[in-house]
Amino acid sequence: xxxxxxxxxxxxxxxxxxxxxxxxxxxxxxxxxxxxxxxxxxxxxxxxxxxxxxxxxxxxxxxxxxxxxxxxxxxxxxxxxxxxxxxxxxxxxxxxxxxxxxxxxxxxxxxxxxxxxxxxxxxxxxxxxxxxxxxxxxxxxxxxxxxxxxxxxxxxxxxxxxxxxxxxxxxxxxxxxxxxxxxxxxxxxxxxxxxxxxxxxxxxxxxxxxxxxxxxxxxxxxxxxxxxxxxxxxxxxxxxxxxxxxxxxxxxxxxxxxxxxxxxxxxxxxxxxxxxxxxxxxxxxxxxxxxxxxxxxxxxxxxxxxxxxxxxx
Amino acid sequence: xxxxxxxxxxxxxxxxxxxxxxxxxxxxxxxxxxxxxxxxxxxxxxxxxxxxxxxxxxxxxxxxxxxxxxxxxxxxxxxxxxxxxxxxxxxxxxxxxxxxxxxxxxxxxxxxxxxxxxxxxxxxxxxxxxxxxxxxxxxxxxxxxxxxxxxxxxxxxxxxxxxxxxxxxxxxxxxxxxxxxxxxxxxxxxxxxxxxxxxxxxxxxxxxxxxxx
Lengths: 313, 213
Hints:
heterodimer; A: alpha+beta; Jelly Rolls; Phage tail protein beta-alpha-beta fold; 3 domains; 14-stranded mixed sheet; 3-stranded mixed sheet; 7 helices; globular; B: Rna Polymerase Sigma Factor, Chain: A; Arc Repressor Mutant, subunit A; 10 helices
């Protein structure tokens, strides 16, 4: 344990003790006087706790929909090492899928587009995205889709029907009700507002169920899929100009800025592993990029040719 | 003739049930001031907060306090925390739209400030999301203890009883939870502003314990 860790441990214990009557305030005073760092670390702990208290109502409300204590679960998606697995994957994706039935191809530009399906289900295709919707070969009630970009699905659940959505290296099955999918081919995010979705991939040992109030984030760089709880109301909010993130790879955030905000922001290599949690509002030009920079404590700089990029302060 | 401070305090304590805290305030003035200075790292601020504490003592509705001295220290501790938080919010506003790195002229949408309500809502949503995530990633024991203590508002001994563990076990869980929250919030910049300003180890020299090497 480093010296800094020890100080943080001590600070946390002082803070927890400070709320009891048996707190030794004189000893705490002496501890604070030992070095200014003690005060700094204690202050961080106390402010973090104060923030928790300030959000108590919202956290209680969120908890009601997720009674079950839960740890984030991780699945190793790929059996092989990254490069080899990627090659296998590329092959799998290019395999012909039997006789091609009739299919529709939708592409969006700067605005999103509403697509109605025959059964009353609907898809809102995000800006700068495309989706192919085809009838599944050999089935009268099945549909197979392939998405690139983002889309919010509101699908009527029908156990008699088979529907699949290919999104990057993942395939979604057992689809019911409302969820959002974002993919750039490598990274995929499946956020479920209501109902559930099963996620499979060629190299995946087992199907990963994602239920309402959860998101699966697959990050190609780390070859991992992770399912985490999320606020159901945060699903698909891009349709109203808001982007919610919860520990999302910054690379995905940058793609969203391009897709939804029309802003291109370069990420230097040292920031590509970073993750972002927070809310961004799009539709006001580069302000969104400045918000992101501010929330992450980064600088937004304009380089040669007017390109915006983020960098460490 | 000088009055013995303890006698004066006892006089005040006897003057009425509501004056017990006032007496304790005077009796422990030295320790409270020293604590405020150590906790805030700023002697002038400590004096101001010491005065604020007096006002709080006067404004406090009557009622029993189980340990008046601890109560005063907790109030003092909260005054420093409130001050740090309001300073952090002020700095967050000041820093919100630092545009010197991005030339301002070609950006028609560069406005000095967004609507304050929208900004506050965003900040709140950001905090809630981050906290939800931080709590979800805690080890089960720490998460349960934190939930019972902070969201269901049980006391630490009550949490111990509910979880069937010792009080020190609860303290360990809660300390771990607090450490975890701190780390998560620092990671996403929510605690960054105040941590990097006004609290630097080498900024003051007002702390008596600072040693030269």
